[in-house]
Design brief:
This protein has 26 helices and no strands. By secondary structure, it is mostly helical.
């Protein structure tokens, strides 16, 4: 009867009023690319797609059978993602009040996305012009001179790769948001029947986004590689060698990093400013529940989940995979060249260069199996709600891990076997196993520190019982402690993988072992070999969070809210887990990109560049500047959230004062005003920290290059930038671990108290926990995630801009 009353909208005075939410759609929000495609006749579009696929496969076949295999797997994964989309969209959206709330969230998210990415695209074109000018006036390398690759060609290739990487990263972000704003209401509706069904819908919606993001990263690099291979007639007499080709792809990684950084900053500021404003006034001052329809900031908060956690995270993981693939391809080509690896089609240098693409192709396959392993049940109601969603997700991850080990071993035997070192493939398979174990260890460590079933979060919740201050102290100490185990795991992984690579039997012309760095690259690939499933778990979090908000706003029964609260708490843990996973992969990928940077500097300078001496004062200063950059960037990111949240708090307070009927459901809040405040402020606030990240390494390298010119040290600029990159990477990893884990722990400590522990909702203990959660919000969803993107972007920008440091 209760549900009937809810569906009929007859539960009291607020429901008697027409349920209308602000229509935030000012103009068509569908990106122009999709509008053009939708305007084409279906048959014509089908023919065009067939021709495009034929052209892509022709270019791939002209390059290597490995490329054809990669392209085929990517196309199949896209078809699988279409199946997941249709399956999710076939589910019911629930009663009308749920649909209205979902529509308001969707309009706000897609409207902000359009404006944000319009701003980012303008900055991307401006930066592309800067890159073009630098490359047109830079010196050429001996390899470019021998292959007749002039400055103009090199410049246009780099700019085209940069813009393609930026475009694909933007599409990855749009896909992440597109599915989340449509799946949230379906998860809410399913929660009225079964927790397992709601879980399955959220996971499959996240799986759709993951397949598209990973598939686009792989197919984008594969197409770019094959196109350059055919266009430049690689490996033909007088042309570029295949081992030098991966260096032309660096622009793609830089473009992806550039978009991911601004997407993460803008989305993070949006979501956390709205969240902080809604919590401080709604929960603490007015004592109303989270996502209560009386809170004027609630729609902005729910919109933020989509633009911050879905769109930004899609672009983030796209960038992670792209950077890792490109750095591994560069190191694979470099090692193959030094070892003079030759032979059959699959054991020539192409095998080592294309190995990362094959690993991530298998990632799409095994992650699909992992997503499908999570099935719905016929149980409903209380029985279904007893199930632990985290245990179900963990089983799916375990299935994916087992398959990853098998496919990784198969890939190494297929592509890394060489007659010069017959057992090398096995050593590299062990390197991959090290990476997979590292990923699993990161998942377990992060889960231990952020899941309220374990002691750290429960201790943090207990600290809330003695006040706000002790909650903050306990949260900070937990975050600081949580950096130790991940650093030890990363250290062991790097040492182990490097040693396995060095002892693989591959040697250069002088007989020196040369597989160490490539072993580390393979370990990084192993760590990211389950990236699609990890992204699925990450996307699950904001979808479940949105579903809980829709249930609360539409005033569903408490039993339904309990299900979505359970999913939301698990979603907080999976989001924290993914961030820890991303930090670990960022550490390894940055190590690889740093090595590639040193190789490129040596190539341009025509002299060895194998070490950086921090005993040189200028080089030490570069290191200090790198560490300072991390702290300043974090400070600006958090202060941006704070300033925007202040505006939201003032607006929410004003509405409660000027519209006293809101608390009695007699007057409706102006949701659109809070959405407008956070949208405009986040776009403005993201510019300063983003510009700092881009300008700093370029300015430092150029200034010290001039100083080196006058003091007789021609490599001084390159050395100072190398030190800056090293110190920024180390400081950034530690800071990101602290921020992400502390923020996640504060959030779940609040969730633990809301289950009824330590006085439950509305108690003094709960208010202290809300304060901690508020402090942790910019940590875990703005500064922390932006930092690991910053680390990789610094590495790619120094690689692209290396010529101006010499």
């Amino acid at each position: 009867m209760m549900i009937d009353e809810l569906e009929n909208g007859s539960l009291g005075p607020y429901q008697d009023r027409p349920r209308t939410f602000p229509n935030m759609r000012s103009k068509a929000y569908t990106p122009w690319v999709f509008r053009v495609l939708m305007g084409i006749n279906v048959r014509v579009l089908f023919v065009l797609l067939l021709l495009a696929f034929a052209a892509v496969f022709y270019v791939g076949a002209s390059t290597s059978p490995i490329v054809v295999f990669v392209l085929s797997i990517c196309i199949i994964s896209f078809l699988f993602s279409i199946y997941l989309t249709k399956w999710v969209l076939s589910k019911d959206e629930g009663p009308p009040e749920m649909v209205q709330i979902s529509d308001a969230i969707r309009d706000g998210a897609e409207g902000f996305f359009r404006t944000q990415y319009g701003t980012i695209s303008k900055m991307a074109f401006l930066l592309a012009l800067v890159i073009l000018c630098i490359y047109l006036f830079r010196s050429t390398t001996p390899q470019q001179e021998s292959s007749s690759l002039g400055r103009f060609t090199s410049a246009y290739i780099t700019v085209a790769a940069f813009l393609l990487g930026a475009l694909c990263s933007g599409i990855a972000g749009y896909v992440g948001m597109w599915v989340s704003v449509r799946a949230n209401v379906r998860v809410s509706s399913a929660a009225r029947r079964s927790a397992r069904e709601a879980l399955q819908i959220a996971v499959r919606a996240g799986g759709f986004s993951a397949m598209v993001v990973v598939g686009m990263a792989v197919i984008g690099i594969a197409i770019l590689y094959a196109t350059f291979y055919v266009w430049l007639e690689v490996d033909s007499p007088g042309a570029m060698k295949v081992t030098d080709l991966p260096l032309l792809l660096v622009g793609y990684g830089f473009g992806a990093s550039f978009v991911a950084l601004f997407a993460q900053l803008g989305g993070g500021i949006y979501t956390k400013a709205a969240d902080v404003g809604a919590d401080l006034v709604g929960k603490v001052e007015q004592g109303i529940p989270e996502d209560d329809p009386r809170n004027p900031a609630v729609i902005a908060d729910l919109v933020g989940d989509n633009v911050g956690d879905c769109a930004a995270r899609g672009a983030d993981l796209f960038e992670s995979i792209a950077a890792e693939i490109i750095s591994a391809m560069i190191l694979g080509g470099s090692m193959a060249q030094r070892c003079k690896i030759e032979g059959k089609v699959l054991t020539n240098p192409s095998g080592f260069i294309l190995f990362p693409l094959v690993v991530h192709s298998f990632d799409l396959v095994i992650s699909s199996v992992g997503v499908l392993s999570i099935r719905g049940t016929r149980d409903s109601g209380a029985k279904a709600s007893v199930e632990d969603p985290m245990a179900i997700l963990q089983k799916g991850y375990s299935v994916t891990i087992v398959l990853a080990v098998l496919t990784f071993g198969l890939s190494t035997r297929w592509l890394l076997y060489t007659e010069q070192a017959p057992s090398a493939w096995f050593n590299f398979a062990l390197c991959g196993l090290v990476g997979i174990i590292t990923a699993y260890a990161f998942v377990l460590i992060t889960k231990y520190y952020t899941d309220y079933k374990h002691e750290p979060v429960r201790t943090l919740a207990l600290a809330s019982s003695t006040g706000h201050g002790t909650n903050i102290i306990a949260g900070v100490s937990l975050g600081l402690e949580s950096t130790a185990l991940p650093v030890l795991v990363i250290s062991v992984a790097i040492i182990s993988a490097y040693w396995l690579g060095q002892t693989s039997g591959l040697v250069d012309e002088t007989g020196n072992p040369t597989g160490g760095l490539f072993g580390t690259a393979v370990a990084t690939m192993g760590m990211l070999s389950t990236a699609a499933y990890v992204l699925t778990m990450d996307m699950f979090g904001p979808i479940a969070d949105n579903a809980g908000g829709i249930v609360e706003m539409s005033q569903q029964p408490e039993s339904v809210r309990e299900i979505t609260d359970l999913l939301d708490a698990v979603g907080n843990t999976t989001k924290a887990t993914t961030k820890g996973f991303a930090i670990g992969s960022a550490a390894l990928a940055s190590f690889l990109l740093f090595s590639a940077y040193m190789d490129e500097v040596a190539t341009f300078a025509h002299e060895p560049f194998k070490q950086v001496d921090i005993a040189i004062p200028e080089v030490f200063i570069g290191g200090l500047l790198g560490s300072m950059l991390i702290f300043l960037f974090s400070a600006w990111s958090c202060s941006a959230v704070g300033r925007t949240a202040q505006e939201v708090v003032n607006e929410v307070r004003r509405q409660f004062i000027e519209r006293p009927g809101i608390m009695d459901y007699k007057e409706k809040p102006d949701y659109g005003r809070c959405v407008a405040i956070v949208a405009s402020a986040s776009l403005k606030e993201m510019i300063k920290p983003g510009a700092l990240a881009i300008v700093s390494p370029i300015a430092v390298g150029f200034l010290f290059r001039i100083l080196g010119h006058y003091t007789g040290h021609p490599l001084l600029g390159a050395k100072v930038v190398a030190a800056m990159l090293m110190f920024a990477t180390v400081s950034g990893i530690l800071m990101a671990l602290f921020l992400n884990t502390a923020g996640g722990a504060w959030d779940n400590a609040k969730k633990y108290i809301e289950t009824g522990a330590l006085g439950g909702k509305g108690s003094d203990c709960h208010k202290a926990a809300v304060t901690g959660d508020t402090v942790g919000d910019p940590f875990k969803d703005t500064a922390g995630p932006s930092l690991h993107v910053l680390i990789k972007m610094l590495a790619t920008i120094t690689l692209v801009m290396a010529p101006i440091f010499l």
